[in-house]
Amino acid sequence: MPVKRPEKTTMPTREAGERAHTFAEVNEGYSVAHASFEAERCLRCQDPVCVSACPVQIPIPDFIHAVAAGDMAGAARILRSANPLPAICGRVCPQELQCEGSCSMGGRWKPVAIGHLERFVADWERSQPITTRPAITRSERIAVIGAGPSGLVCAGELARHGYGVTVYEALHAPGGVLRYGIPEFRLPKAVLDWEIAMLESAGVEFQCNIIIGRTITLDDLIAKHGFAAVFIGTGAGLPQFLGIPGENLNGVYSANEFLTRINLMRAYDPEADTPVHVGRRVAVIGSGNTAMDAVRTSLRMGAEEAMIVYRRSEKEMSARVEEYQHAKEEGIDFHWLTSPLEILDDGDGWVSGLRCQRMELGAPDASGRARPVPIPGSEFVLAVDNVILAIGTTPNPLLTRTTSGLAVTEHGCLLADERTGLTSKPLVFAGGDAVTGAATVILAAGAGKRAARAIVEALATRTLVTRLPS
């Protein structure tokens, strides 16, 4: 076996001082030389555990081998056969926990940069003309509710099997959390638009500004509009709050609202007039990727000080290491072991500060993480003009409240079979955050793909061979 280089090929990035004040993409992508160099590190294992660790089961060694051989068209074909969104997943997936986390190279050295290579191949494909043509060979039509990652992947997989697919989206453009939740500096809208154009070229139809549960009911999709099956991928768009005093003050946002305003009103475009109030000092409460997106966005919107407030320590942080490192390089402050108690009023209904308390870590709680314990007498005030809450989201209950027979869990998530996505209603499937609660793009994509295969099986056999959830 030839000697392999132990280190990953570094992804070029924009200089931190420059990028902290623009929405230009942080990672600049591999060159052909970078990609070829990195692809040669793959061991081409006989048992590629990286594939089973990928929620959409990309044939990873095969596409990397094609890159190493200089066959970019072949690599793109392999990627797209398994994942309709490679340019997106190559940018936002937590590869370090999935494919790269299982890479055999990682046992002694750094794992192969699978995500960077996926992005490189997808960007190469994006530079080529779109040549896909619709190939509808089935008489049945499928409805997909929600144009986020699970809905897009489900639609793409069904189109690949020859079904006519209509995707219904409540907002003005498809993409879901990919469009309104992830900032431009991590996922440019041009990349998302191109991936959606690829789906349209494969025959997927999008109908926007239609709220299923209001404009049309779910039952009508089957009874009146003639769809043979329905997939629900409505995500988890309802923000959670802390329940502390001051959350109703001007200058307080949920991260969901803040990022949606920024993205849908094009704050990333210097020519756009985007009326989002961002003061000099911004505190973001939380430690996940959404918190990192919100705090880095506030810096780009003109904040002079932007900080993360989190009640546990750096060790318990849930954000990707890469996003955390980028945030630190850009000058974000981190207040670990700090719990917010009250948002303070300046007397005119606007935020003036955040009263906090120091914490220390105790025994593990139900999540397995160390429980934060208040330190008596340690209260203090952070002077801030905005507070952004990034502490999680839950599914919006609109659809379940207007659809009879659609069972939900005690947390408001749709009850669905883990393997197939089948819900409590015949021929109605679901996946992604609407089932699991807020998770990652690639887990939602994997759920959309599994559900698509179950729909194909159910329609082909005319029997529901899946297990109904109890």
Q: What's the helix and strand layout?
A:
Layout: H1 16-19, H2 32-39, H3 49-52, H4 60-68, H5 72-82, H6 86-92, H7 99-102, H8 114-126, E1 141-145, H9 149-160, E2 164-168, H10 177-180, H11 189-201, E3 204-207, H12 218-223, E4 229-232, E5 238-239, E6 252-254, H13 255-264, E7 281-285, H14 289-300, E8 305-309, H15 321-329, E9 333-335, E10 338-345, E11 351-364, E12 370-382, E13 386-389, E14 393-394, H16 398-401, E15 428-430, H17 433-436, H18 441-461
> Which structural class best describes the helix and strand composition?
alpha/beta
Query: Helix content range of the residues, please?
Result: 25-40%
Helix count? Answer: 18
State the distance separating the first and last CA atoms: 52 Å
- Outline type: globular
Low-confidence stretches: 465-470
Please report the total strand number as a whole number: 15
Q: Give the averaged pLDDT, no decimals.
A: 93
Report the major sheet: 5 strands, parallel
Largest sheet: spatial strand order: 3-2-1-4-15
The radius of gyration over CA amounts to 23 Å
Strand content: 15-25%
In short:
By secondary structure, this protein is of the alpha/beta class.
Verbal overview:
The chain is α/β, with parallel strands linked by helices. The protein has 18 helices and 15 strands. The longest helix has 21 residues, at 441-461.
Keywords for this structure?
single chain; 470 residues; alpha/beta; five-stranded parallel beta sheet
